[in-house]
Amino acid sequence: MADYEILIYTNSRGETLVFSPLSTLHTNVANDVTGLGDISNTIFTSSSMAQDGETYIGQKFDIRPITIKGTINSTNKDTVLEIRRKMQKILNPKLSATLTYVYKTYTRVIDVKAEDTPVFARKAVFTTFTIKLTCCSPFWRKDAENKDDIAAWVAEFEFPLEIDATDGVEFGYREPSLIVDVYNEGDVETDMRIEFRATGTLTNPLLLNVNTGEYVQINATMQAGDKITVTTKYGEKGAVLLRGTTETNYFRYVDVDSTFMQLAIGDNVFRYNAASGLDALEVTIYHSDKYLGV
Q: Rounded mean pLDDT of 261-274?
């Protein structure tokens, strides 16, 4: 477990670069990297004649710029040229990427795009580099999604196994709760991915936010094995049915009064329902909580 900060850049092809005090790309993350913690906020206001001050309308967080400066830790010219070529290839601005921050067991991830190819400068002994990244979504997240089951089967089968001749053995049981508290520990509200799964025939599955009265309902019949995924992320909102191996756009089956709900900071209480076949419905909520800095 390293007691120093590490940054790992991974492009959409799975190629990586590691920046740390012990890396070939020597970088003191605390001193040589900017934009990891600070984020700009824009406030929108309006003003009328004779009004003192202005009226608040809204606000938004701006994109996050990140700059990484470091040194190629080699004095061999051939090695330096090879590393430069590798950096140019991996930091291709046309490829999407993620930047992962690691300190001991603490990990955060953010989506990034390289603004330009790296800028290199030959110094007296070593070659330095400057990398500029842009995060269109300025929020950090954990490296894995949070998962909250509202209705699902809970496994009971475990080893060592002892089967009673009279009572047999229970392999699992259905969680009876219709309500779950989904906790958003992030710094801002966040989107979610809702999965409705059918173990039998059911109609009009619904997920209700008990706190706000908002809901998502699919006006359709589900068969055993069906999975409908509703995404509430801005720019990616939609619903998709997976039946067997076939995916079908189900946006037209989303109830017109439905809301592509966001998770508020803190507690969010949800309840599921169906017009018929409630016992055949399983619901899972996936979410990535968002943080303003590392």
A: 94
Q: What percent of the chain has pLDDT over 70?
A: 90
pLDDT tens per residue across span 113-135 = 999 999 999 888 889 999 999 99
Place of tokens 């080893």: 159
All domains of the chain in start order, with CATH: 6-135 (2.40.30.200), 146-287 (2.60.120.860)
Across 97-120, average pLDDT: 94
